[in-house]
Specification:
This protein has five helices and two strands, in the order H-E-H-E-H-H-H. It has helices spanning about 50-65, 90-100, 110, 115-120, 130-155; strands at about 70-75, 105.
Length: about 160
């Protein structure tokens, strides 16, 4: 696989020190109040951004059903969202999908359980997207969910 130089692995001796890092990476910082900024909409399920997202998902579900299909959602985060990142409204999102009868699989929680050293091996360095290993793990995590949907559709 071709990677530009800036995306290639940096040897550990060249990395910055972690002396200033938050000691407990699994305890993310918390946003307590929604502001006028669009950048914090992500963290508040009652924000304007999430309201629009919910409306679009409901509309997409209707369009998919009109065309004889069933909408299913698999959600997960990028590398930076698993450690030292404000808590996302994942439980609220799952409850929303459930309340609208949308099949869903939350792979976010599975990646949260992976230890720090191994987690980074699932992503392209300095990019945040899955690499080959990450795609393989994601496929392993989601295969049962997808096969169940296919079996259900055959009935």
């Amino acid at each position: 696989m071709f990677l530009p130089d800036y995306m290639k692995k940096v040897s550990s001796s060249d990395k910055k020190t972690t002396a200033n890092a938050v000691p407990d990476k699994k305890t993310p910082p918390k946003y307590l109040k929604d502001t006028a900024s669009i950048f914090d909409d992500l963290f508040f399920f009652d924000s304007e951004g999430w309201e629009l997202t919910r409306k679009l998902i409901v509309k997409l579900k209707q369009e998919v059903e009109t065309n004889g299909g069933e909408l299913a959602v698999i959600h997960f985060g990028g590398l930076h969202q698993y450690r030292n990142f404000p808590v996302l409204p994942i439980k609220q999102f799952d409850a929303f999908l459930e309340s609208h009868g949308i099949a869903h699989f939350n792979a976010f929680n599975l990646f949260m359980k992976i230890d720090d050293e191994f987690l980074s091996k699932n992503f392209i360095p300095n990019d945040g997207h899955f690499n080959e290993t990450g795609h393989r793990h994601f496929a392993e995590f989601s295969t049962k969910f997808l096969l169940n949907l296919i079996e259900k559709a055959k009935l």
